[in-house]
Structure formats: C-alpha cells, structure tokens
Amino acid sequence: MGETSNGRIDEEWLKSVTYEDLKDFIKSLRDRINQEECENDIFRRFLQRIEAKVGVSQQVIHESDLKTQNCARKRSKSPCSTVERTSKLSWEDKLQVAQFEHDEFKQEMEKAEVVMNKVIDDLRAGISELDIRHEDQKKHSADFEKSVVKEGYIDRTKCVASEKYIRFSEERMKQRETILEKIRLNTATLRSHLRKCKGQLRQKEEIGEVLHVVDFEQLKIENSQYLEKIEEKNRQIQSLKAVAARTLHVVNTLKMKIHELQREQRRQETEINQRQEICKRAKNEMIVVKEELKNEKKFKKRFQTHVDSFHVPSIMDFVQLKTEERQICRQETIHARKFKIAEMALIRHKKLWTQVRRSNLMGEV
C-alpha cells in the first residue's frame, strides 16, 4: 500500500492518495512502529537475560539459541539489483522469546510477591507487637497509678509507701514470668509441630524417590478413577441441588400455607371464644328463664286452683245483695247526718258550759 520493495513510499501513489487514506496509512505505520519497538524491547531484555546467564556475546546467542532464516529483498528501482541477506526471526522464534519473557516476568512477580508478603507479614507482626506493648504499657501505667500512687500515698508523710511499690513490682514480675512460661510452652509446641512436618515432608520425598514408572501409571489410573468418581459425585450433587431447590420451593409454599392456616386458626379460635361467651350468657339466661317459667307455672297453678274454686252467685242473690247494700248505704248516710247533728249539739253545749263556768267564776270573785 504505497510502499516499494525497498521500503520507500511511491511518489505516484502519494500524489494520487486521498487525505483519509493518508491518515489510515500513517496510523498503520505508527502501529507497526509501536509493535516493532515492543518486540525490540522484549528481544533486548531477552538477550540481556541470556547474556547474564550464559556470559556469551550477542552474536553467539543468535547463532546458538535462535533459529534464523535468510530472506532476499530486491530493490525495484536500482538497475543492478543485489540480494541482501539478513537474519530474521520467524513467528515460532518470536513466540518462544515472548513465552520465555512471560515466564521470567511471572517468576519475578511471584518472587516479588513472596518478598512483599514476607515484608508485609513482618510489618504486621511488628505493628501487632507494638500495639500489644502499647496496651501493656497503658495497663501498667493505670495499675501503677491506681495501686501505688493513689492507694499508697500517705498524707502524713506526703510520700508513697514503699511496701505498695514493692508488692506491685513483685506482682508485675510474677505476671511476666507467667506470660513467658506460656510463650515458652507455645514455642515448644510449634517446634515439635515443625519437626513433625519436616519429618513428614522428608518421608514423602523419600517415598517419591522410590516410586517407579509402574507406580506412576498406577497412580494415573487411580487418579482417573477418582476423577470419574468426583464427576459422578458432582452430578449427584447437581441433582441433589435441583431436588433441594424444588424441596425448598415446596417448603416455602407449605410455610405460606401454614401461616395462612395459622391466621385462619387464630381467627376461628377468636370466633369460637366469642361464641362460647355468647353460649355461656345464653345458658345463664336460660337458667333465669327456667326459674321464671317455674314461678309462672306455680302462679298459674294457684290462679287456676283459685279460678276453679270460685263460685258465681245467682242473679236473685246479687239483686238482694245490691238492695241490702243500698239500704246499708242509706242508713250510713242517715247515721252520718245524725252524727254531724250530734257534733254540732256537742259544740253548742260546750260553748254553753264554757259560758256557765265563766259566769260562775265571775260570781265567786
């Protein structure tokens, strides 16, 4: 695209090219330049690594480790074309170099990560130790302030009692000895565990050295069998997971139904309690009504007995009784008039008697 065989740009193509094509061409050239620079950087670092390991020159490395091939380029514009032979890496060589650099870089990153993790662990351990020491110092200062300065201060002598300080120091030393004993026991336990792990590792290495090809083949067969079992177990686990999902769905549905039934049960229990209260009140009212009915029956029975024993008189007797009643009423009226007349006569006689007595009294005087 616009380049001749010697790598130069064709002038005719440059005159006839458009602006957009020229931009695309420049962009492709820049991409190729960046790619070549990246490859050169990788090759340079690869050569430096090889020279550092083997200690030979760049020419010897090219001749011994890398595969080379010769390619001829013809110059189209020159009348007497010459064949130029250059050493050029194939794609397999480039891939091998890139893979080597990738592995080396990965190993360096792993080593750096191990170193950094170790440094981080050391720093964390140091920070933890400093925190523990700081907390210990704070606690020690607070205990000293409480036990010695405050409780041991004597107002009479204006100083701290030495017995308090000595007792506090002895208790502090005992605590330190107890902590040291615990740390010593923990260290001994860790050392024994480390020796045990080293022995197991050494035993595994010895067993690994004794193993032969047949043992490895047997291990491969067992490994394949175990892999098949693992796949079968995984399939079983998947099926069990599906069953568990369905079961969980059914359980959730049943739980919802149970909640609904519980709400319905509580509603029905409330309704039953209300109806029981109504039934209880109805029973009490029935007892009262039965008592009233019993009393009414007794009253009815007495009334019926009275009605049965009642005899209506005849008409003549009734007329005679009415006549006697009228006569009695007439006599009563007559006697009442006579009584009033007698009362008036009595009043008149009383007045006369009063006048007579007054006149007699006046005569005696």
Automatic annotation (TrEMBL):
Keyword presence, Signal: no
Compartments (UniProt record): Cell projection, Cilium
Signal sequence annotation: none
Domain CCDC113/CCDC96 coiled-coil: 173-346
InterPro entries, alphabetized: CC_CF, CCDC113/CCDC96_CC
TM helices/strands, residue ranges: none
Biological-process GO terms, alphabetical: cilium assembly
Family to which this protein belongs: Belongs to the CFAP263 family.
Protein known as: Cilia- and flagella-associated protein 263
